[in-house]
Amino acid sequence: MAQVTADPLIGRLVDGRYEIVARVARGGMATVYRAHDTRLNREIALKVMHPHLAEGEQAASFRQRFEREARSAAGLQHHGVVAVYDQGTDGDMRYLTMEYVPGTNLRQLIRDGDLTLRRSFAVLDVVLSALAAAHAKGIVHRDIKPENVLLEEGTGRPKVADFGLARAISEVSNTTTGTVLGTVAYLAPETIATGHVDARADVYAVGILAFELFTGRLPHEGEGPIQVAYAHVNTDVPPVSAFAGHLGRPLDLLVRAMTARDPDRRPPDAAVALDLLRSTFRQIPNEVLDIPAKAAPPPSSAAVKAARTAVVERPPAGRWTAQQPPQPPQPPAQPAGRPRFGGKIALAVALVVVLFGAWWYTEQGPGAYAVVPNGVVGVTEAQAEEVLTEAGLTPSSVEQHDSDVPEGEVISVAPDEGRRTLRDEPVRMVVSLGPELAEVPSGLVGMTEEEARAALRDVGLVDVEVSREYSADVVRNQVIWASVREGGSVPTDETVRLTVSDGAPPVTVPDVTGLSADDATDTLTAQGFDVAREDKSDKKVEAGAVIRTKPDAGKGAEQGSTVTIVVSRGEEGTVPDVVGLSVEDAQALLEEAGYTSVVRGFGELFGEGVKETEPAAGKKLKKGEEVTLWTW
């Protein structure tokens, strides 16, 4: 039984934080582990660089470049990019922490062979979109390949991994003259020949990836990396239709444009390539989009090597150029002979067939169609007409207003650039008249907000933004300022900004708690407020004193608004029972309880005492209130 050597990093705590759980993959530059971030309690991918990449004199240089590129990659935020969280060192170990994407990679999907054309376009769209975001920031991937396109488990959404890493490593590798780092199967010719890498090299790699997705195989194969690299430099990528019969000319043109050996003939960056990809997608019939690519055959050992990131020795200048192969000998000329009668008939039939074929080709077949060329949109009408005429098409035009396209330039064309159309059908161009203008109404300042909106709407200005501010001079809801000058002309799609008055600035309500009602009223009136009164029983505040205000003291209120003072009626009490007592005794008891009294009836004249009280005994009554004593 073979002895299995356990990975010594499994279970290790890296940098006191990342606990390595399992090894995920191993490549030419690094080993990827699944790890647990013990500080943030989340699962991450930990990419550990191979130690030999930073040995000896290259150690300091590699570390600087590695840290720089990791920072650049960490700043790249895109839904199609595997996020880079951090980079660091632990002893001699250089590592990256990244988003952990459970699932598989594009290589496995290609091997399964059930990729439809629609799914392939969806994957390429995300890859080019991610690269476009990177190219906009000056970041070149340098190692696009199926292994670096991860597919999320469950959703199948693609994410591109390893941004910036290849550059950090290749810059160190290139300190030794004559080496190229990358995955040979996807390397651009200029990278192989000169070591030069820019955004167009990424476009080339995506073109090779597209070929592989469409056909299930790579365009160039050889016994080793040198043979594959030689083919990239000296041989055009073959048309995909030669390997998959259902694929037509639009896909041939797409792959040919992206894999042109001359980098100047490729799309200059991924954003342009993405537009080309989407334009091509619109040309593919639905029934073709859902045909699966044929399954890829089991890869040869040479193909496996070509799909790995490696350092390849680059021969001296000129050695990559292929010698012209010897031309085959011309066949000997046939001796002239006397044509027979049957030959004349055959010649006549052939002539008829040729004439009919020519008619069919130009009237019904492919010759009846032409592709709308690029260079029509965004140029003047005269220039666009010249481009269409040279392509054998008849231009027609309509005009419409557009604020973004200068007057006289073509806004759009139908059919779109790159689409096929009948030669005798006119190509319709939409030509800009420039922005449509509206005259700003007069008197906006001083109108109410509703009046100003209506006046602007009447002249075609409907995009109105309103902000509000306090003004001591302008009444509430009137326009203080407008962003457009009355009587001037502005585009109808311009945003008009209005500032509307919120009235006088608020005044702080003073604190009149504890003052008498009269004193509180005088204080509030002096601040410009109207005053209302509300009485309320309160056992803690003596009768007649202010308990609080509405709004509360310290709050802001508009000048001229009403502030209500809440005045205490004192503590609410209970009327004592004085029925049956003499008037004198009853009055004395009520006074002791804090009430005043008034006597009603005639019973006192006859020496009779209190017969009834109002309010009755036991009823609640605030201190100082009056109790009526009935003597009858």
Description:
- A hairpin with a 5-residue loop joins strand 8 (149-152) and strand 9 (158-160).
- With 632 residues, the protein is an alpha+beta fold.
- It folds into six domains: 13-99, Phosphorylase Kinase, domain 1, CATH 3.30.200.20; 104-313, Transferase(Phosphotransferase) domain 1 (Transferase(Phosphotransferase), domain 1, Orthogonal Bundle); 366-432, Trypsin Inhibitor V, Chain A, CATH 3.30.10; 437-501, Trypsin Inhibitor V, Chain A (2-Layer Sandwich), CATH 3.30.10.20; 507-568, Trypsin Inhibitor V, Chain A; 572-630, Trypsin Inhibitor V, Chain A (2-Layer Sandwich), CATH 3.30.10.20.
- The chain is elongated and about 160 Å long.
- Residues 325-334 have a biased composition (Pro residues).
Count every helix, treating DSSP H or I runs of 4 or more residues as helices. 16
Structural class: alpha+beta
What's the name of the CATH homologous superfamily of the largest domain?
Answer: Transferase(Phosphotransferase) domain 1
Distance between the termini: 124 Å
Strand order of the largest sheet: 1-2-3-4-6-5
Describe the oligomeric state of these chains in a short phrase. Answer: single chain
Keywords: ATP-binding, Kinase, Nucleotide-binding, Serine/threonine-protein kinase, Transferase
GO molecular function: kinase activity
EC number: 2.7.11.1
Region (Disordered): 318-339
Please specify the SSE layout and strand pairing.
Elements: E1 13-14, E2 18-26, E3 30-37, E4 42-49, H1 59-74, E5 84-90, E6 93-99, E7 103-105, H2 106-112, H3 117-136, E8 149-152, E9 158-160, H4 165-173, E10 179-183, H5 189-194, H6 199-215, H7 225-234, H8 249-258, H9 270-281, H10 286-289, H11 301-306, E11 309-313, H12 341-363, E12 369-371, H13 381-390, E13 395-400, E14 410-414, E15 420-422, E16 427-432, E17 437-439, H14 449-458, E18 464-469, E19 479-482, E20 489-491, E21 496-501, E22 507-508, H15 517-526, E23 530-536, E24 546-550, E25 556-557, E26 562-568, E27 572-574, H16 583-593, E28 596-600, E29 612-614, E30 620-622, E31 626-630
Parallel strand pairs: 13-16, 18-21, 23-26, 28-31
Antiparallel strand pairs: 1-2, 2-3, 3-4, 4-6, 5-6, 7-8, 8-9, 10-11, 12-15, 14-16, 17-20, 19-21, 22-25, 24-26, 27-30, 29-31
